[in-house]
Amino acid sequence: xxxxxxxxxxxxxxxxxxxxxxxxxxxxxxxxxxxxxxxxxxxxxxxxxxxxxxxxxxxxxxxxxxxxxxxxxxxxxxxxxxxxxxxxxxxxxxxxxxxxxxxxxxxxxxxxxx
Length: 114
Fold this sequence. Notes:
mainly alpha, 6 helices
C-alpha cells in the first residue's frame, strides 16, 4: 500500500491492527519521502530553496488567507521548486509502492551522507 493510501486509510479507521503488511508507517515513510523531496529541491535549486520554503509559500498564500489547497496546487508548486524530475519521487514512493531504499541512499549521498 502506498504512503498516500495508507495515510487515507489511517484517517478513516485509525491505528486499528488489521491485515498484516496492509499499511505502511505514514510517519516514518512519509518523513523519509519528505526528506527525499527536500534534498531534491535543495539540489535542483543549488541550495537556494528547500521544502520548508515551498511549505511557507503555501502557508502564506493559502492557510493565512483561509483558502484550501488541492493536490494539484501542491504538485504544481513541487515542480516549480524541484523541476519535473521531482514527480518521480511523488509517483514512485508517495503514490506508488516502489521500495525507496536505493532512492533514499542516492538522496543522502547528494548531501554527503551514506
